[in-house]
Amino acid sequence: MMLTKAGLRQQMRRQRLEVSLSRRKEAACLAHASLNAALTGKNLVLSYASFGSELDLWSLNTQLAQERRLVLPRATGDRLTLHQVTHLKHLISSQWGIQEPDPQSCPLVNLCKIETILVPGLAFDSHHHRLGFGKGFYDRLLKDGAIPTIGVGFKEQLLSDALPIQPWDVALSQLQLF
Q1: Rounded CA gap, 34 and 31, in Å?
Q2: Would you state the CATH architecture of domain 5-177?
Q3: What number is the average pLDDT over the span 150-169?
Q4: Cβ-based neighbours of 150, under 8 Å, separated by 6 or more
Q5: Interval 94-153: pLDDT, tens
Q6: Domains of the chain: which residue ranges?
Q7: How many CB atoms lie within 10 A of CB 161?
Q8: According to the model, what pLDDT value does residue 4 have?
């Protein structure tokens, strides 16, 4: 029997929490090297601020910030605003404890200026669909499909079965799972 999205979210949260510390470190190193290579020649990159048990992108984000190429999202109402981050000290904690750009220090960036988007998720499938936390932030942001997207996570997050999808769910351009 196929689980509902809510059931899958619970299962995948638990599964992601079970990834060992050594696997997390290995995956973070592999992700930095692979994503850095994939982003060569790209100007502005929308990344994410790793939170909880998500794959850690802080070393890559630090590098992108130093190169003035890092853009991070900030949840505002039911949508994401995008802000250029040149130093990680310009991040503040959101209501969920996620590090977000301080709008006083980080200028807004129009989505059309972004060249690649790194997208986190709880689970991914072979059709490049992702299961997020259910708020729809990324689906609303990506609905036009004009910007290349890379789903980022652990190999353990790839499901053998297709995810249940809704008409508003947006498939990613590619997956890089470590």
Answers
A1: 5
A2: 3-Layer(aba) Sandwich (3.40)
A3: 94
A4: 35, 38, 116, 117, 118, 119, 172, 173, 174, 175, 176
A5: 988 999 999 999 999 999 999 999 999 999 999 999 999 888 899 999 998 899 999 999
A6: 5-177
A7: 10
A8: 87
